[in-house]
Amino acid sequence: MNATYLSSLSKEDLKRFVDSFDTVLTDCDGVLWVENNAIEGSPEVLKKLRELGKKVFYVTNNSTKDRKDYVSKCLKLNYQATEEEIVSTAYLVANYLKSINFRKKAFLIGSAGFAKELDLAGVKYVGFGPDPMPEGLTTLGSLEGGLESLLEPDVGAVLLGFDPHFSYPKMVKAASYLSDPNCLYIVTNTDERFPVSSRLIYPGTGSMVAAISACAARDPLVVGKPNPYVAEAVSKIHPLDPKRTLMIGDRANSDVLLGANCGFRTLLVLTGVTSLDDVDKWKKSSDPEDKKLIPDFYLNKLGDFLQLL
Ligand SMILES: [Mg+2]
Description:
- By secondary structure, the chain is of the alpha/beta class.
- It is built from 11 helices and 14 strands.
- Magnesium ion (MG) is lined by residues 27, 29-31, 195, 249-251, 272.
- Belongs to the HAD-like hydrolase superfamily.
C-alpha cells in the first residue's frame, strides 16, 4: 500500500510484478469503459494479460445488466468474455438466494437486468417497475384500502440494486417488509454516485440503500465490492490465491478496499472516481481505515500498462 507509480518501476521490478499474479479481477465502469465507450488502450491490455496466461474476471458492482448483457457489451467494446468470467452483483444476489434455497417472494427494487437474473435463478419477486405516488395524494395514509393493501403476503426478502424508478411508495413498502426481522435485506452495492464527468451528480445504488436503511433502521447484506463475498463467489469457479491476485479498479472505497479486505495486490487507474489527490490525503491521514484505501500501484490509465508488459 505505497501507491507506487507503476511506470516508475525498473524493468526487473516490472517483470517481478507481472510474474507475481496469475489472476486479474478487473472493475468495468471507469477502468474498461465509460458508459458505452471503451477507454483507450484498455482492451489491448486485457488481451495482452490473457496472452501472458492470466485468468481474467470482470467484477462489477453495477446491477443494471445480467451476465449475458455484459458479455455482449464486452464483445462489442473488444473485450473477450464468457458468462463465467462476469461477476456482477445482480447475479451474485440471485445466486445467493438460490444457494440458501429461498422459497418466498422477494420485493425487488432494481432494474431489468436484476429481474432477469432472478428469473434465471427461479426466484419469484414483486415490485419491479414504476411505482409512483398515486395522483392527488401527498401521503400514503389516505390510500383507499389502507396501508396494509400495499403489502404482498409471503415476502421474505427485500432486494435492492440500482432502480431508475426509485420512489416514496417503494421506500414505504421496503421498510414495512423489513420491519419483520426474518425478512432478508440484501443489496448489490453501496457506491454513492456514478462515475461521470460533468456537473450533474447521478445518485448510485448506495444513495438508495442509505434511504432504505435509514427508514428501516437496518443494515443490509452487501454482496458487491468491497465485501469479500465477491471473492468467495469467484473462488467457487476458479481457485484464488490472494497473494497471486491483482485487483484493478478506479474507485478506492470499493475496488482497492476489496483488495485490502481479501489480501489482493491492487492497481488504481485514474480514469474514474478516485484521484491522486484523494490518495495523497489518505497517505497523510492517521486513520487506519483511510490507509486501506491506498493502492499498491497506480497508473493514469490502464492502457499505459501495455508498454510495460
Ligand atoms: Mg468503477
